[in-house]
Amino acid sequence: GVFLYNHLQQKVRNAEALAQKYKQQQEALSAQLQVVYEHRSRLERSLQKERGEHKKTKEDFLVYKLEAQEALNKEKQDSMNRYGALSSQHKILKNQHDDVKKQLLDLQLQHNSLKLEHRKSLETHSQKLAQLQQEKDSEVTNLQDTVFKLREESKLLRKAHQEVHSQLLSAQAQMEEFRQLKEALQKMPGLR
């Protein structure tokens, strides 16, 4: 019985020591668990904070994305409007360019026609001028011949005039003689 009692006491002491050991381990584990809980709590708070910041960042990003999309749509619309205006202006300028090109072509054709007409007119004018020069030269030659003939005729007429004047003077002298003779005859009594 003593042996059994000692044996049981030894077991009790061993059990108490083991219980003490387990208690210490439990306290250590409890302390570690407390640290883990606190760490977990801090991590949860940090995670919550990160989630809040992530949510806020996500909301800010969504707002930014929406604003960027609206700005992009507005810019796209403005670009389309500008493109439409530039396209209309380009079409107008192209039409004006075609009109100016057509006018230039018409003016070139008109210029070529006028150039040809001017050349023909110049040739005709040159021919007429040459003909008129020839006629003028011929007329001058004829006039020179006429002047020469008229001078000759004038010389002949002067000569004839002198002869007629001489004859006239002679006739006047004869008339004077006839008159004197007539007067003398009239004065004679027998002839009356």
TrEMBL record:
A cellular component annotation (GO) from this entry: Golgi membrane
Chain coiled-coil ranges: 5-60, 90-142
InterPro entries from the UniProt entry: GOLIM4 (IPR042336)
Superkingdom classification of source: Eukaryota
Keyword tags: Coiled coil
The name this protein goes by in its record: GOLI4 protein
Biological source species: Callaeas wilsoni (North Island kokako)
Gene: Golim4_1
